[in-house]
Amino acid sequence: MRLLHTSDWHLGRSFHRVNMLGAQAEFIGHLVTTVRERAVDAVVVSGDVYDRAVPPLAAVELFDDALHRLAALGVPTVMISGNHDSARRLGVGAGLIGRAGIHLRTEPSAAGTPVVLADARGDVAFYGLPYLEPALVKDEFGVEKAGHEAVLAAAMDRVRADLATRTPGTRSVVLAHAFVTGGEPSDSERDITVGGVAAVPAGVFDGVDYVALGHLHGCQTLTDRVRYSGSPLPYSFSEATHRKSMWLVDLAADGTVDAERLDCPVPRPLARIRGPLEDLLADPELARHEEAWVEATLTDPVRPADPMARLTERFPHTLSLVFDPDRAEDDPEVSYARRLAGRTDQQIAEDFVAHVRGAGPDAREQGVLRDAFDAVRTDETVREVAR
C-alpha cells in the first residue's frame, strides 16, 4: 500500500506579517496532484490541520476545498487533531465525512479503533492518536500521574491489543502528534510540555509497521519506521535550513517500509543575515538573498537610524529585524543573556532561589516548582481548548 504522509498544515497561519493562505492553497493543489500522479492509496495527516482552535473562515474554506478534492479522487484520507486544533471542532461530522473516505480521528477514546483499508495484499489498520493532553486524558487511559509518555504508552497498549485480534499479517500504521526523543524542534511549534516531560521515547511505538508523526516542523527520520513529515511551509526563521517535504511510503506485504521524500512548493526562500548594517547593505555575497524573506540581525554597537527602511531598499522582503550588538565579553548584559540561554523556566526559577537564599531548592521544593509551572501551563491549555 502506498501512503502519503503529511502534517502540520497550520491553515490560517501567517509568516510574520505575510498572509500564507495563497501558499497553503498552492500546497493543497500540489498534494492533490501528487496523490493522483503517484498512485497514492491513502493519505495520512498527522495533526495541526489548523493553526488555532477557532480558525478564520478563509482557512475553514480551504480545508473544505481540500476535503472535497481528496474525496473526489476516491483515495481514503486519515487525519488526527494536533495541539493547535480544537479536537471537538475538527471532529464535527466525522461519521458522515467518513462515508466519503475522509476519516477524522479526534477522540482519545477511539485510539484502539482503527480505520481498516485493504489492498491486494491484505488489510492495513490505521490507528489515529490525536494530540493527547496528559492533564485532560489521564483518566481516560487510567494513568496515575499525567505525563506524555504515560498517556501515549497507554494509548499504544490499546493499539497493540486491538492489532492482536486482527487477521495474522494485518499491517499497521499509527498517526500521532507528539514530541518524540531524537526529534529536532524549531521555534514555531507550540510547547507541549504540560503535565510532564516533553519528549517520549520512540520505543513507545514498538509493534507497528509505520508511525506517521506530526508536531515538529522539520522532516526527520527517527528510525526507518518512525518519521516526521514536517510542515509543508515554513512558519519561523528557525526553519530557514529546512527542506519542506512529504513522505511517500510504500508498505510491503510483510510490513517492510520504503520511503521517498517529495518536495513541497517553495513560495519564497528564507534567509538569515547578520552583521553591521552598512556591511549588510554593501556585501555582494548577499545578493542571492535579495528576493528572499529575510531576518536581519544587526550587530552595530549603537542602534542605527531607520534600519528597517534602509534594509528594505536592498532586501524588500525583510520581515524581521533583530538588534544584537557586539559587546565585550565582560559586559553584564552578555553574561546575563548567556546564563539564560537554553535554560528552562524550571532551571531559571531554581537559580533564582539559589541567588536569593544562597542554596538551591531541595527535591521537595523542586517538585513544588515543577507542579506550579505545570499548573499554569495546564490552565492555559484548557482555556485554549475550551475556546
From TrEMBL:
This is Nuclease SbcCD subunit D. Residues 267-355 form the Nuclease SbcCD subunit D C-terminal domain. GO terms for biological process: DNA recombination; DNA replication. SbcCD cleaves DNA hairpin structures. These structures can inhibit DNA replication and are intermediates in certain DNA recombination reactions. The complex acts as a 3'->5' double strand exonuclease that can open hairpins. It also has a 5' single-strand endonuclease activity. Belongs to the SbcD family. It comes from the Bacteria. The lineage of its organism: Bacteria, Bacillati, Actinomycetota, Actinomycetes, Kitasatosporales. GO terms for molecular function: 3'-5' exonuclease activity; endonuclease activity. It comes from Streptomyces viridochromogenes (strain DSM 40736 / JCM 4977 / BCRC 1201 / Tue 494). SUPFAM superfamilies: Metallo-dependent phosphatases (SSF56300). Heterodimer of SbcC and SbcD. Keywords: DNA recombination, DNA replication, Endonuclease, Exonuclease, Hydrolase, Nuclease. NCBIfam families: sbcd. Residues 1-218 form the Calcineurin-like phosphoesterase domain. It holds the Pfam family SbcD_C.
